[in-house]
Design a protein that fits this description.
With about 210 residues, the protein is of the alpha/beta class. The chain is built from 6 helices and 14 strands. Helix 4 links the parallel strand 5 and strand 6. The model has no long low-confidence stretch (mean pLDDT about 95). The chain binds zinc ion (2 copies).
Amino acid sequence: MNVHVLPAGPIQTNAYLLTAPQTGEAVLIDAPEGVWEMAQSVLKDERCRLARLWLTHGHWDHTQGAAEVVRRSGAEVCAHRDDRPLIETPEVMRPLLIPGMVVEPVKVGRWLEDGDTIDAFGEKVRVRHVPGHCPGSLMFYFEGAGAAFSGDALFRGGVGRTDLPGGDFDQLEHSIRSRLYTLPDSTTVFPGHGGPTTVGEEKAHNPYVSG
Ligand SMILES: [Zn+2]
Ligand SMILES: [Zn+2]
């Protein structure tokens, strides 16, 4: 599985395009504004077809490009039900948007729950609910590849902000300790903003939630 980091949108949100050129399989994790153009060129080069879009949560910076991705690829959208209002009626985020910004709603094809598994790239990808930054925050864990896509729950040297609607620091801390810090130390964490880190590194040095 190849991991392509595609930072896009007004606040440089990381989308991750996962591809397997051998089988033509591709999954996109998050869809900041304009991500389709970048994704499309990778898909073309690697002769892959995008069938699924997994959303780590419903904040606009992760969903603004989703409608275009769905229109152009026909990908099925997967997300957690607790972010349904943000994804299907994004106008509820208007107070948080940059003036003039438009976020189109997208239809979710599959609602994910904590403990679900998704078959992808020859392994069972584990879905973990990690609320605290956003009510419907999800993490996608590839045990075989030793990779966790954490959205805005955990960053290198940081954690997601908890002052937005539905945010709660105690809940976020619990999510990180019980769902992320329980993964092997060597697991690479790919966050929603900034560069990658590892579980061991954050347990040892994260100033907000220590291990
Ligand atoms: Zn967020
Ligand atoms: Zn974000």
